Amino acid sequence: MTAQTKKPGGWGAPVPKGLSGRNILPRTHAPLRTFMVAMAVMTYLAAVAIGGMFMTWRAIQIWKSGVVAEATVQILPLSEPEQNSGKAQKLPATDMNTRVQQAVRFLEKRPEVKSLRVLTDRENRALLQPWLGDVSIMQDVPLPRLIAIRLNPERKIDIAALDRALRAAVPGARLDAHGRWVRALSHMASTVFWLGLGILAAIIIAAVVLVVHAARAALESNRETIEVLHLVGARDSFIARQVQRLFLRAGFLAGMLGVAAAWLTFALLALLAPAEGIREGAWQLLFGAPEKIAYHYGAWLIIVLTATTISLLSARTAAMRILAEMFAEP
Amino acid sequence: MTAQTKKPGGWGAPVPKGLSGRNILPRTHAPLRTFMVAMAVMTYLAAVAIGGMFMTWRAIQIWKSGVVAEATVQILPLSEPEQNSGKAQKLPATDMNTRVQQAVRFLEKRPEVKSLRVLTDRENRALLQPWLGDVSIMQDVPLPRLIAIRLNPERKIDIAALDRALRAAVPGARLDAHGRWVRALSHMASTVFWLGLGILAAIIIAAVVLVVHAARAALESNRETIEVLHLVGARDSFIARQVQRLFLRAGFLAGMLGVAAAWLTFALLALLAPAEGIREGAWQLLFGAPEKIAYHYGAWLIIVLTATTISLLSARTAAMRILAEMFAEP
Amino acid sequence: MITLENVGVRYGTGPEILRDVSFRLAKGEMAFLTGPSGAGKTTLLRLLYLALRPTRGLIRLFGEDVTAVSRARLPELRRRIGVVFQDFRLLDHLTTFENVALPLHVAGVRADEYRDNILELLEWVGLGDHVNAYPRVLSGGERQRAAIARAIVSKPHLLLADEPTGNVDPQLARRLLRLFVELNRLGTTVIIATHDASLIAATPGARVMTLHQGRLSITPAGEAA
Amino acid sequence: MITLENVGVRYGTGPEILRDVSFRLAKGEMAFLTGPSGAGKTTLLRLLYLALRPTRGLIRLFGEDVTAVSRARLPELRRRIGVVFQDFRLLDHLTTFENVALPLHVAGVRADEYRDNILELLEWVGLGDHVNAYPRVLSGGERQRAAIARAIVSKPHLLLADEPTGNVDPQLARRLLRLFVELNRLGTTVIIATHDASLIAATPGARVMTLHQGRLSITPAGEAA
Ligand SMILES: Nc1ncnc2c1ncn2[C@@H]1O[C@H](COP(=O)(O)OP(=O)(O)OP(=O)(O)O)[C@@H](O)[C@H]1O
Ligand SMILES: Nc1ncnc2c1ncn2[C@@H]1O[C@H](COP(=O)(O)OP(=O)(O)OP(=O)(O)O)[C@@H](O)[C@H]1O
Ligand SMILES: [Mg+2]
Ligand SMILES: [Mg+2]
Questions:
Q1: How far is it, in rounded angstroms, from Cα B231 to Cα C69?
Q2: Which residues pair with A74 in a beta bridge?
Q3: Which of A270, B244, C162, D3 could form a disulfide with A282 if both were Cys (CB 3.0 to 4.6 A apart)?
Q4: Domain ranges (residues) in chain D
Q5: C-alpha distances in Å from residue B271, one per residue of B278, B295, C24
C-alpha cells in the first residue's frame, strides 16, 4: 500500500533545521536516478570509446615507428650499357665502395633518417639467401650492397621524394620502404580508426539525445514541485538555481562514475586481457608517460565537464519551459 | 498550473467505449518515454557496433584473401655439401626442372592451393632485379626458380605445415608467405577486432544496466496505478499482463527504432563516407550477397528480440516486486 | 461479517494509533465511523480493505481470518469490497467512465454489459456531463463523486467510504448518502468515516462508532448523537 | 483591493464556467465563497492567485491590472497572497516544518528568524507532534492543516482558502476558522471557499458570495444565510 515508512521524528523529535543550504527539489526520485544512470552509462561508453581510440592510435603509432621506419637502401652493381653483350664485366670494387660512401653521406644529412648501417658482406648474403639459395655457390657474382636505415618516426616522411633524391645523388642507388605492405597496413589502420571515430560520434550523439531527454523527464516529474515553488512566490531565478544545483551535482557525479567505470575497465584490460598488445596498450593508456596520458585524462575530464554542462543546460531549459507555461497567455 | 487540457468529451460526447482491448497503464508518460529513448539509443549503439564489427570482419577477410593468399614457392639451386670448397658446380638443368615439376604436382594436390603458375625465366629475373640489379650481367649464374601460388582464401591455412610438407617432398623447395608482414597485419586486425568486441560488450552491459533501470523507474512511476488496480480486485496475473503488453510494445518499438536508425547510419555511410573502403563495406553490410547479409540482419533481429525480452522481463519483475509489497507481512 | 478483536496498530516505532479495537458488524448493517482528525479512522478502514496488517489482534472478514489469508486469495476478497478513498485515487490517464468501469473490467465483465449501468450511475451522482473527462480537469467534488461511483459500481458486499462528502455541498451530500442507504438496503454492509454530523443525524438506522485516542466506542443503532 | 469586472472563464472549448462575474472586495474584508460542487469556486480562486487568466473581463489586484502584469512581477505579487489549495499541494519530500517554511525560505528569510514562529503555528493547528513527518504519513486532516499553516505563515495581504476544513472535525474547523478571523483582524483580506454552512454561520461579519451556474450573487456582510 502507500508507503508505511517510519515517521522520521514526530514524538520528541529534534528541532527542525529549516531549508537553508538544502536543495528543495527531491534528490531521490526514480526519474532523476534514471537520468543519472543514463548519464553514467553514456559517459562510460564515451570514455571507453575514447580510450579505445587512444589505444588504437598509439598501437598504430608504435607499429608505424617499428615497421614503417625500417627501410633498405640498395646500391646495385652497375653494368656498362655499351658492354651488355658478352660476358659480365666486373666493376671495380672501389666504385661500389665509393657509391656506398656517397649514399651514406647523403643519407646522414637527411633529417628523415634516424640511423643507418651498411650491412657487411656476410649480412648481405644472408639477406639474399632466401632468394638465391646458398650464396656460397656464387662467391664471385657481384651483389648489390645494402644499407639498413631507420627513419625518424616522429616526422611525416615522403618516401617517394627521398627515393628520387637518392637516385639522383647516387647512381644505382634505390630506396625500398616496403611500400606495398606499408600502404596496406596504413589503409587498414586508418579505416579502423575512422570506423572507431564513427562509433564514437554515434555514441556521443546518442548520449546527448538520451541524456537531454532523461533530464527533461526528470524535471517533468518535478513539475508539481516547481509549480508549488512558483505559487509560494519563488522567483524564476531561484527555481533555476535549485534545478541547476541538483543537476550540476547529478551530472557531475554520474559523469565521474561513468569515467571511473571506464578507467576500471581499462585497468582490468591492462591486467587480464588475453592479448599482450591490448594489455600493454591499456597499461600505457592509464599509466604511460605523463606527457602522453595527459591527453587521455584530459579527454576524460572533458567528458565529465561536457556531461555536467549538458545536464545543467538541458535541465535549466526544461525548467524555464515549465515556468513559462505558468500564467501564460491563454 | 495544473494541466488546463481540453476536456475530451463531456458535453454531448460520444458513447464511451469501455476498457476492453485497451491498455490500462498509461502509454504516454515521461518515465516510459525515457525508457523507450534509452532502449532505442542502446539498441542503436549495439546495432552500430555490431554492424561495425561485421564491416571490420569483412574488411579483414577481403584483405586476407587479397594479400595473404599470395605466396611464392622457391626452388633453390642445390649445392653438393661435400663440394662446398672450391668453385661452384653447375647442377644439371634437368634436375632443377624435375624438382619444379615435383613441386607443381605436389602443390596441385594440396587443397589449400587455389592456383599456381611457374614463372618464366624472364619473370624470374624481373623479380630478382630489385635485389640483384640488372641481372643480364649474370646470365650464367644459376638462379632459383619461382612458382607463384594463390592460396584458397576460404580455408584456414597452416602455412608452416604446408612449408614443412613441401620441403619434405621436394628438396630445395621452400614456401614464402610473407610471414612477417602477414603476422603484423593479422595481429593488428585481431587486436582491433577484440577491441571492437570489447566495446560491443561494454555497450551491451551498459545497455542492460540502463534499460533494466529505466524499465523499473517507468514502472515505479506507475506504482499508484498498480496499487489501484490491485485494490479494485485485479489479479497479479492481470496486472502482469498489462505491464507486459505495455513493455512488449515499448521495447519492440524502441528496438526497431534503434536498429532502423543504425541501418540509416550505415546507408548514409554507404553513400557519403569519405573513404572508399568504408563506403564499400557499408554497402556490402546492407545490400551484399544474401547469404552474407543474412548474418547481419539476423544479428539485428536478435538485438530487437533481446531488447523486447529485456524490457518485458525487467518490467514484469518490477511489477511483481511492487505487487509483493502490498499487504505483505508487516 | 466483520469481527475485530483487540486489534492494535502502530506505524513503525510510533505510538499505537489503534488500541484494543473490538467490534462486530453483521451483514447488512450500516455504521458511521467518526472521531477527531488523526484519530485513526483511515487506519481502521485500511485494515478492513486489506491494505494494512494489524500489529496485533484478530480480524475476520466474510468469515475468514484476514491475517492468515494468502496473497492469491486477495483479489477475490477485494472484489467484494468497495472503497472510497479519502484522497480519491482515480487514475489520471483514464476518463471518468473508465475509472468507474475499472472494478468491473478487472473482474472480467464485458463493456456492453456495464456501459448503460455506469452511465446511469454517473448521471445520478451528477457527472453525466463529465463522462469522458479526465480526473485532472474535474473539480474536487466531481472527483469525489467519481470515486464514489467506482466504489459502488460493482455492488460490493462491503462498502468502506472515507470522508465521502468532504468536498461536496450539503444537498449533494444527502443525495450521495441516499445512494449508500439504498445500497445498504440491498444487503451491502456500509461503513462511512465522516466528520459531518448532519450526515449521521440524517441516518437514524445506523450505528455510530467513535474513535478517540485510539480507542473505539460504539453507539448502538438509532441512538445517533 | 480586489476588483473583478465582467469576468468570464471558459476552459478550452467548453461552456463558460464563470459568466460576468463582478465584485469588489476592500482591504481587510472577509468573504465566504459558496455554491454547489462544480460551480466554479476553485476556478474563481485560481483567477485570484494568478494561476489562470480570464477569458474576458478585468481583474485588479492590489491596484494592478492582473492581465497586464509581467511575469517578472509575479513572485512579488504571490508573496502577498497565501493559498490553501483544495488538494493541499504539499511537497512530499519535505517535512511538515519544511513545507510550512517554504514561502519564507523562497522570500529569503533566514531559518532562525522563522523557526519558533512556525513551531508555534504548527502547535496551534495541532501538528506539534508531526513537525518532522512527511506528508505521505499524515492523515487527511493533518495534511489540510499543514496546507493552512503554509498559507498563513507569511501573514499575507490576501488569503485564499479552498475548502480548508473539508477533512477536519467540526471542533478543529472552528479552531482553524478562528485563525483566519484573527488574521483578518490584523488586516488580511480573506476569501474562504466552503460548503460548510456552519462555518459561515459562525462568522457573522463576513460577506457571502454564492456561485450558481457561473453567476455570482453577493449577500452583504452580516446577512449570512
Ligand atoms: N503511513 C503512516 N506512517 C506513520 N504514521 C501514519 C501513517 N498513516 C497515518 N499515520 C498517523 O496515524 C494517525 C492516524 O491517521 P489516520 O489517517 O488514520 O487518521 P484519520 O482518523 O483518518 O484522520 P483524518 O480525519 O484527518 O483523515 C495520524 O496521526 C497519522 O499521522
Ligand atoms: N482544467 C480544467 N479544464 C476543463 N474543465 C475544468 C478544469 N478545471 C475545472 N473544470 C470544470 O469547471 C467546472 C468548475 O470547476 P471548479 O473546480 O471551479 O468547481 P468548484 O466550484 O471548485 O467545485 P467543488 O466544490 O467540487 O470543488 C467543473 O465542471 C470542472 O469540471
Ligand atoms: Mg482519514
Ligand atoms: Mg473546488
A1: 15
A2: A146, A174
A3: A270
A4: 1-80+157-166+188-225, 88-155
A5: 10, 22, 80
Task: Give the span between the Cα atoms of A89 and A87, in whole angstroms.
Answer: 6
Is the C-alpha dihedral spanning D127, D133, D135, D141 positive or negative?
negative
Pocket residues: Cβ below 6 A from ligand 1: A 4, 7; C 11, 14, 17, 37-43, 86; D 130, 137-142, 167
Residue A326 pLDDT level (bands cut at 50, 70, 90): confident
Which of D18, D66, D85, D132 to mutate to test binding with chain A, by most A CBs within 10 Å of its CB? D132
Burial string for B235-249 (b: 16+ CB within 10 Å, else e) reads bbebbbbbbbebbbb
Query: Cell numbers at residue A196, please?
Result: 572507431
**Distance from B16 to chain A by nearest Cα, in Å?**
29
Flag whether pLDDT at B272 surpasses 60.
Answer: yes
Q: Identify the closest residue of chain B to C89 by CA–CA distance.
A: B228
CATH 3.30.70 domain locations along chain B: 77-171
Architecture per CATH, C1-80+157-166+188-225: 3-Layer(aba) Sandwich (3.40)
- CA nearest neighbour of B246 among B37, B70, B36: B36
Q: List the residue whose alpha carbon is closest to atom 13 of ligand 2.
A: D38
Which of C:44-83 have CB within 8 Å of D? none
Query: What are A130-146's pLDDT values in tens digits?
Result: 555 554 545 555 667 77
In chain A, which residue's Cα lies nearest the Cα of C13?
A6
Residues constituting chain C = 225
pLDDT of residue D165 exceeding 60: yes
Q: Which of D126, D172, D195 sits opposite C169 (nearest CB)?
A: D195
The ligand minimizing its distance to the Cα of C37 is 1
The Cα of C216 is separated from the nearest Cα of chain B by a number of Å equal to: 23
The CATH label, of 3.30.160, 3.30.70, 3.30.1340, 2.60.40, for the domain at A77-171 is 3.30.70
At residue B310, the 3 state secondary structure works out as: helix
Name the H helices within chain D: 41-48, 74-78, 96-106, 111-124, 140-152, 170-185, 197-201
- pTM for the structure as a whole: 0.83
**pLDDT at res. A109:** 86
What is the predicted ipTM? 0.87
What's the confidence (pLDDT) of residue B47?
A: 94
C29, C207 Cβ separation under 8 angstroms: yes
All residues of chain C having their beta carbon less than 8 Å from the beta carbon of residue A6 are 11-14
Alpha carbon distance C129, A235 (integer Å): 39
Query: How remote is the C-alpha of C76 from its chain's centroid?
Result: 17
> Is the CB of D37 within 6 Å of ligand 2?
yes
C141 and D37 within 8 Å at the Cβ level: the answer is yes
Helices (H) and strands (E) in chain B, counts: 9, 4
d(CA B101, CA B108): 10
C142 lines ligand 2 (CB under 6 A): yes
List of residues 6+ apart from B3 with CB closer than 8 A: C136, C137
Residue A181 confidence (pLDDT): 63
Taking each helix axis from N to C terminus, what angle separates A30-63 and B179-220, rounded to the nearest 10 degrees?
Answer: 170
Q: Are C89 and C147 in contact (CB under 8 A)?
A: yes
pLDDT of residue B181: 63
Over 70: is that where the pLDDT of A2 sits? no
**3-state DSSP assignment of residue C45:** helix
Q: What is the dihedral of CA B191, B197, B203, B209, to 10 degrees?
A: -120
Count of positions (residues) in chain D: 225
> Which among D11, D85, D162 is the top mutation candidate for probing chain B, defined by the most B β-carbons within 10 Å of its own β-carbon?
D11
Q: Which of B241, B128, B133 is nearest to C106 (CA)?
A: B241
Joined grid coordinates for residue A45: 561508453
